Amino acid sequence: MLTIDKIFHASSVLKSIVATTSLVRSETIAPECKLYLKPENLQRTGSFKLRGSGYKIAMLSDEEKARGVIACSAGNHAQGVALAASKCGISSLICLPDSAPISKVEATKGYGADVCLVKGCYDDAYQKALQLKDEKGYTFVHPFDDENVIAGQGTIGLEILNDIEDLDAVIVPIGGGGLISGVAYALKSLRPSIKVYGVQAAGAPSMYNSINSGHIECLERVSTIADGIAVKQPGENTFELINKYVDDIALVTEDEIASAILTLIEKHKMIAEGAGAVSVAAAMFNKFPLAGKKVVSVVSGGNIDVTSLSRVIERGLIKSGRSSSLLIELIDKPGQLKDVSRIIADCGGNVTSVHHEHSGDTESVNGCYLRISMETRDYDHVEQITKALKAEDFKIV
User: Fold this and answer.
1) Cys staple from 152: which of 51, 213, 323, 356, with CB 3.0 to 4.6 Å?
2) Which residues neighbour 194 within 8 Å (Cβ) at sequence distance 6 or greater?
């Protein structure tokens, strides 16, 4: 069974394997509370997963190590198992969903593991790993539903308590639930007054649904940019621990996740993947009662594919009103584009692209459409520009 002594033991064992990630104060992300970031995106392998897999593999018997290990992962657990196995001098095979970012696949290989790509999502990779485990006799390293893995993740809770006094709440991402189970158990065992809040992506609410219904549920499908927490079915051990030790769970949307990723880049020069940013999104968008509280958001990972990052940044810009577009119906005559550009510039907007459509269903035979893309400060700025255009009789479609 999971005990606080096991978590302390994990902390001792992991000293030579993981890095201690110091809290970072954020003055601007959620100004209504005193927010600190726990930057596990700066951990070796780029996520917290090295803690759980490192402790699990360290605790294997010589016989289990000799057989080699197998794991399944959306990417971060894969890298943790690969590095931990390499440090112990044992072989590892990782089953990843074929939708996993290329950067995570290549990083896993780079840490010394063999990779088996499986069509589908994490749960499909999980079934394949179990099949190969039985066929080949590998030792299976579960990504979240294992007491040693959970104990390893719980060392994050110990580090948080060592870094900060008078802590009121911790916000933790939830996929299968291993991270929050370990953190919540450690915090509640040592300081029961601390609130522990969990966050899932709205497109993969398996633990959220399960806790609310009172029994483990399996989703038919998951869809989210937070691929690291896109889990169809939570674990049995993690479900019980979360049900007992976690105070509340909230959901965040894709746009909210994208905004959190963008904010971390701009405000803290910190790269977070979708799964790592959900805890920050929860603080940004007031998912929990945090006003006046001292709060830690666990940024659980930073392994985001570069091509995905560019799309996420664009989505975050749109969500925050930093990137916007207007469709304007004009009379097709000289000077119209010049006047529109002047109004936008006078309001402080920056035109980034222009598309002039001569054909279309306009009221006037001489009508046309002008699509303007702009860089703006926020939604209020967009409204200011819109009002200025309307004041000079331009029709906003």
Assistant:
1) 51
2) 167, 168, 169, 170, 187, 188
Cα–Cα distance for residue pair 228/273, rounded to 1 Å: 8
Count Cα atoms within 13 angstroms, Cβ side, for 131.
9
**pLDDT tens-digit readout, 120-154:** 877 788 899 999 999 999 999 999 999 999 999 99
The label of the residue with tokens 């996993």 reads 100
Give the pair of three-digit tokens for residue 87.
């440090």
Name residue 305's beta-bridge partners. Answer: none
Tokens 């294992």 belong to residue: 146
Cα of 192 vs its chain's centroid, Å: 27
Strand order in the sheet with 323-331: 350-357, 367-375, 323-331, 395-396
Say what the pLDDT of residue 397 is.
87
Give the pLDDT confidence of 324-350 residue by residue, as tens digits: 999 998 888 888 889 999 999 999 999
Residue 342 to residues 65, 184, 355, Cα–Cα distance (Å): 70, 56, 17
3-class secondary-structure state, position 354: strand
Residues annotated as catalytic are 49, 300
- Collect all residues with Cβ–Cβ distance below 8 Å to 361 and sequence separation of at least 6: none
Encode pLDDT of 36-89 as tens digits. Answer: 999 999 999 999 999 999 999 999 999 999 999 999 886 788 899 999 999 889
Cα(261)–Cα(284) distance, integer angstroms: 11
CB proximity list for 373: less than 8 A, separation 6 or greater: 323, 324, 325, 351, 352, 353, 354
- Which residue in the block uniquely carries the two structure tokens 């659980």? 300
Q: Using an 8 Å Cβ cutoff, are 206 and 231 in contact? A: yes
Q: Residue 51: left if φ>0, alpha if ψ -120 to 50, beta else—which one?
A: alpha
User: CA–CA distance from 41 to each of 58, 107, 287, 367 (Å)?
Assistant: 22, 15, 22, 52
Whether pTM > 0.85 for this model: the answer is yes
Q: In what order do the strands lie in the sheet with 195-201?
A: 24-26, 34-39, 294-299, 169-173, 195-201, 248-252
